């Protein structure tokens, strides 16, 4: 699932400090560009006229990214995605579109592009305030220079919330298929119960379970669970980076 975009590799040297606002703004630009590339891959079989227009737009984006120096800040995965010919991306990687969109959400939230973190059942980004959104095709330096972050305590709490959603997704997977366990089910349940106590005021709970898609998590169908799992994984990935846990290239979603 979402983990397929993460490489098993040795972590590079890392200072352990959280990124500055300008670094977060650049990262948001790179992730949004990746979202457009993967969206193009998923829609490549549409009618020829629409595909031609999409390809022209993508080439314009690449030229813009090079002009604005974003290619120097791209991860190795992003560089490969951006430069791979249409139709040549691995099918499973192209399916990670939702995961990439989910990782963009906390970056934009941390930069105050919208007031509240969206719920965990939708990839849709809220409408961003005024001209604060990611400025495709415009000069990026003003956007980067104006960037400022939410208080560290808010970002830390958002990370803990994403972690709890991720643990709940792993619990449901383990209950349905023991092979999906990243940790023993009893360990997952204990972690969930312990961390829930501090976060419950910030979460939708009913009958001792998280509520998503308008119902208890336990009642999700396979597609709903997959959506929630990918959203939680993508957000936790980005929030781990925002909290300074590792470089983007080496970050992990595994909190256990």
Structural class: mainly alpha
Largest sheet: 3 strands, antiparallel
Strand content of the residues, in percent? under 5%
Task: Work out the number of β strands.
Answer: 3
| C-alpha Rg (nearest Å) | 19 Å
Overall tally of structural domains: 2
**What coarse outline follows from CA principal-axis ratios?**
globular
Q: What spatial order of strands do you see in the largest sheet? A: 1-2-3
Structural summary, described in words:
- The protein is mainly α and 256 residues long.
- The protein has two domains: 19-146, no CATH class; 152-242, no CATH class.
- 53% of the residues lie in helices and 3% in strands.
- It contains nine helices and three strands, in the order ααααααααβββα.
- It has helices at residues 21-42, 48-67, 76-83, 91-94, 97-110, 141-146, 152-176, 185-199, 222-242; strands spanning 205-206, 209-212, 215-216.
- It has a three-stranded antiparallel sheet, with no helix packed on it.
- Strand 2 (209-212) and strand 3 (215-216) form a beta hairpin.
- The longest helix is centred in the middle third of the chain and has 25 residues, at 152-176.
- The chain is globular.
Key attributes of the depicted protein:
single chain; 256 residues; mainly alpha; three-stranded antiparallel beta sheet; 9 helices; 3% strand; globular; disordered N terminus
Chart the SSEs and their pairings.
Elements: H1 21-42, H2 48-67, H3 76-83, H4 91-94, H5 97-110, H6 141-146, H7 152-176, H8 185-199, E1 205-206, E2 209-212, E3 215-216, H9 222-242
Antiparallel strand pairs: 1-2, 2-3
Helix pairs in contact: 1-2, 1-5, 5-9, 7-8, 7-9
